[in-house]
Design brief:
Helix content is 60%, strand content 13%. It is α/β, with parallel strands linked by helices and 177 residues long. Strands 2-1-3-4-5 form a five-stranded parallel sheet, with helices on both faces. Strand 3, helix 3 and strand 4 form a beta-alpha-beta unit. The longest helix has 40 residues. The protein is elongated.
Length: 177
């Protein structure tokens, strides 16, 4: 699974990081210009790895991590003095300047952690999502695909994990019966 997102304040920084990652056979799935875009991309993908600067136009890396509620791994790449501004111990740090090998190694490690975390969560979360889709299909005129899109859209608009939205839908549907 490729859930790699790049977000920096400048387009030039985004472009440079994307080039370095592509040279290491790590294709970037989404390039974002703001923290809000990153949050939408992570919610849509169901997790991932975010390579970003310490500061984005609308939020800091610390605020981004808080808003993502642990749904993604964050690798902040910046000069050492800027990295000192990151207070959250869960944000991984990569001092700049760096080479493509160090960047690739850090990203690959985080992608492995993301894959391991996704497999441990996904079984129960996936069951909840499937139950919600079945309820939406049986109680309303929705196909499975429409139910899935409904859950995705509601997840993005409420800024909650899809599994949490699915659990909420299940509760709502059960109250209506």
């Amino acid at each position: 699974m490729n859930h790699l997102i790049v977000a920096f304040e400048t387009e030039a920084a985004c472009h440079r990081v994307c080039e370095l990652l592509a040279a290491s056979a790590l294709p970037v799935r989404s390039v974002c210009k703001s923290g809000a875009e990153v949050i939408r991309a992570v919610r849509y993908m169901g997790g991932g790895v975010v390579v970003c600067g310490v500061k984005l136009p609308d939020m800091t890396a610390d605020q981004l991590y808080d808003d993502l509620e642990g749904d993604a791994y964050i690798l902040a790449a910046a000069k050492p003095e800027a990295l000192d501004l990151c207070e959250n111990p869960h944000i991984f740090r990569l001092p700049l300047p760096t080479n493509r090998y160090a960047l690739a190694a850090a990203v690959q490690m985080l992608m492995q952690l993301d894959a391991m975390g996704a497999s441990s969560h996904s079984q129960s979360e996936q069951e909840t999502i499937e139950k919600a889709k079945i309820l939406l299909e049986t109680n309303g005129p929705m196909t499975e695909e429409e139910a899935h899109r409904y859950l995705q859209k509601r997840s993005m608009t409420t800024r909650k994990k899809m599994a949490d939205v699915a659990a909420q839908v299940i509760q709502e549907q059960m109250k209506g019966l």
